[in-house]
Fold Dolichol phosphate-mannose biosynthesis regulatory protein.
Amino acid sequence: MALSDRLVGGAMLAIAAFVFTYYSIWALITPFFPTDSPIQAYFPDRVWAVRGPALLLIIGVGAVGSFVGYIMQKEAAKRRERETQRRA
């Protein structure tokens, strides 16, 4: 079990390091290259360097908000059920 956990963790770390490096080069270094440079062919349009993370942030905040709202509704239903059992 521990070996598989280490493999999964190592793979996740390698993927995160690759994504971080790729995004950092894309957002911080490619603006200094001319637009007709062959390096620009390896990266999407620069506008997506801002839109992508913004979209992920909006989706993430929405997912967290939905989860919190769902949990609050479930807790309120449990609380109502307990109160009706106490009264009966």
The first helix runs from residue 2 to 29. The chain has a mean pLDDT of 94. Residues 1-46 form one domain. The helical segments are 2-29, 48-87.
